[in-house]
Design brief:
The chain is mostly helical. The protein contains 13 helices and no strands. α1 (8-39) packs antiparallel against α8 (157-184).
Length: 305
């Protein structure tokens, strides 16, 4: 395939627009259905005074934010999976003879022992990076993080864990690392692709605080993907980050830390320090593993000769 003739912008951003389109369609359907449910008693004349009900109606619909997100994810995940599968099979993947993406075989190659670093990094991200960024006086400049947080917190904890802790990481890793990041690597250097994918990941959150956090997390997730070579690893790390973020919202100790700014800064810096240390250790361990693998290959070649 000649990538020079591609519409690069559409090839990279098209999948994101597909997902946003699905979200818009789902939300539109919900808005129409919920309007009919809540205000079906209104007659035609009262409808002209509908402006009086806008605020009440908006609050009512926002209470279904996670439900709308759930439906959007259920519809979008199979579509993103098919995109990942298509990109894997075409163009030909030089690392595989059969040039075919088989989910069962993909899971067989997963090394659970490699999950330890992604899980730790994911857990430390909201405790350090996320908590520190939330301290910055930037909320409301672009989007409103507190409003988003409030809407999500109003939903049941079980629904939060299902949607944000499980399904969202699956969808976002398929989309941002499995499709967007991998396609960017067709056109630019790996590090440049990681930064661009992280910027897109941040912008897609539609508020500055979550955007900055997602940008940093996106870079780390691309790093994990390059080091471990599996989207499952990034899903695990992303899921761990989201689960800890949910837990922080309901944990009394976390709320106590957030109440005192000095304590919050100290804890944030300590967690960021641990975060950087784990990244360093992971990088060093990977380098050692690569040396061992290279020496093994050399030994096998000598034996074959």
């Amino acid at each position: 395939m000649n990538y020079d003739r591609d519409n690069k912008i559409w090839r990279v951003l098209g999948p994101l627009f597909v997902y946003l389109g699905i979200r818009f369609l789902v939300e539109t359907i919900f808005y129409v259905v919920l309007w009919n449910i809540k205000f079906k008693e209104l007659n035609v004349s009262a409808a002209f005074n509908g402006i009086l009900y806008v605020e009440e109606y908006s609050d009512y619909v926002l209470g279904y934010t996670l439900v709308m997100t759930l439906v959007s994810l259920v519809v979008s995940i199979p579509i993103m999976y098919l995109m990942v599968k298509k990109d894997y099979e075409y163009p030909i993947n030089p690392r595989r003879k059969e040039n075919k993406f088989v989910l069962k075989d993909y899971f067989k190659r997963i090394d659970i022992k490699k999950f330890n670093y992604p899980i730790i990094l994911g857990m430390l991200a909201p405790l350090g990076v996320g908590r520190f960024i939330a301290l910055l006086p930037i909320d409301g400049i672009l989007g409103n993080y507190k409003s988003v947080q409030s809407n999500l917190a109003d939903s049941s904890v079980v629904l939060q864990f299902l949607v944000l802790g499980v399904l969202t990481p699956i969808l976002e890793e398929l989309l941002f690392r499995g499709v967007i990041y991998k396609r960017l690597k067709l056109y630019c250097d790996v590090s440049v692709a990681a930064y661009i994918a992280a910027i897109i990941f941040g912008i897609a959150h539609f508020n500055l605080i979550q955007g900055l956090y997602a940008f940093i997390l996106g870079i780390v997730l691309s790093y994990i993907y390059e080091k471990n070579g599996s989207l499952i690893d990034t899903m695990v790390a992303h899921g761990a980050a989201n689960v800890v973020a949910i837990f922080m919202g309901i944990n009394p100790l976390s709320k106590l830390i957030d109440k005192y700014i000095i304590l919050r800064i100290i804890v944030s810096i300590a967690m960021i320090g641990l975060f950087m240390m784990v990244l360093f250790i992971m990088n060093q361990k990977k380098q050692i593993d690569e040396v061992i693998i290279d020496e093994t290959v050399i030994d096998e070649e000598i034996i074959d000769e």
